[in-house]
Design brief:
This protein is of the alpha+beta class. The chain has two domains: 53-129; 135-290, Rod shape-determining protein MreC, domain 1 (Thrombin, subunit H). Helix content is 40%, strand content 25%. It is built from four helices and twelve strands. The chain has helices at residues 2-15, 26-46, 52-129, 215-221, and strands at residues 135-143, 151-154, 167-170, 173-181, 186-190, 197-202, 208-212, 224-230, 240-243, 255-264, 270-277, 286-290. Strand 6 and strand 7 (208-212) form a beta hairpin.
Length: 299
């Protein structure tokens, strides 16, 4: 039994072409390569002149390859550095943009706060100037789309004691009058509106006149109309004009503006002029509503 098995194995070895090949393991190959390197190092050290031609040939072959590899490596490293620098600069740019936006927002808020503080300061001074009149502060929440405050809405209404014909002030003087009241809001017509007419008086002479709104004039040169001034009036340029005691809607003594360009009108019976309002009607935010009504009197 064992003899037959040995015969078969011998026959397979005779017919297997791979059977006679030498099988080298990885450790054998590593040993051989190390031995060859050691021999080359020994010969190079012991017989430097003998291997010099070989070195020259190797240098001729290897040097260009080494130079090319160094060039490629330098280019790759340089590109990586440039990319990293570019990414760093982009990150810094985004950070600077964010900081600029934050600073711009802070400046905007600061300017807004300063403007609101200045407006409140003026209201406080105005309140002190007319301290004998009861008032309610209100904020403007809507206006006409023409950029001027000739007709606007405030956030106070009948629930806050607001009534029609109550006078409204801001800045240095008269703004207008309440024309419509709702529960939480009210509409104000200012003295610059084309439908506005205010009985007025020149402070020094006591001459009465009419101040009429005129949006065209206001947009052109910042003035509105003054008419019905007595022909013999002694009014002078830049004199104060206030509300007259003969008005049936406006409380007396509220500053309206300053008279200019006094001249005799076309009828030659009275004088006319223009008036620079005491209030900036392009920059209104807060107003004071006088909660006392003028007693009904005929003009």
């Amino acid at each position: 039994m064992d003899r037959g098995r040995r015969r078969r194995m011998a026959a397979r070895r005779r017919h297997d072409p791979n059977e006679n090949r030498i099988m080298l393991l990885p450790k054998h190959i590593l040993f051989i390569l190390c031995f060859i390197c050691f021999v080359i190092m020994f010969v190079s050290y012991r017989f430097p002149n003998a291997v010099k031609p070989v070195k020259n040939v190797a240098d001729m072959v290897i040097s260009p390859m080494q130079a090319g590899i160094n060039h490629v490596g330098t280019a790759i490293f340089g590109n990586r550095q440039k990319k990293a620098k570019l990414e760093e600069l982009e990150a810094e740019n985004e950070e600077l943009k964010s900081r600029i936006e934050e600073m711009t927002a802070l400046v905007r808020l600061s300017n807004q706060d300063r403007y609101e503080l200045e407006a409140l300061r003026k209201l406080y001074e105005l309140d002190g100037k007319y301290s004998d009149l009861p008032k309610v502060a209100a904020r403007i929440i809507a206006r006409e789309s023409n950029g001027w405050y000739d007709l606007f809405t405030i956030d106070k209404g009948s629930a806050d004691g607001i009534e029609v014909n109550m006078n409204v002030m801001a800045g240095n003087g008269l703004v207008g009058i309440v024309t419509e009241v709702r529960k939480k809001t009210a509409t104000v017509r200012s003295i610059i509106d084309d439908n506005s007419n205010v009985s007025a008086m020149i402070t020094s002479s006591g001459d009465n006149c009419i101040v009429s709104g005129n949006m065209s004039m206001l947009k052109n040169d910042g003035t509105i109309e003054v008419s019905m001034l007595p022909k013999d009036s002694k009014a002078i340029e830049n004199e104060e004009v206030v509300t007259s005691h003969i008005s049936d809607r406006y409380l007396p003594g509220i500053l309206i503006g300053y008279i200019r360009n006094i001249r005799t009108d076309s009828s030659n019976m009275t004088k006319e002029a223009v008036l620079v309002p005491a209030v900036d009607f392009q920059k209104l935010d807060e107003v004071l509503v006088i909660t006392a009504l003028k007693e009904k009197n005929e003009e």
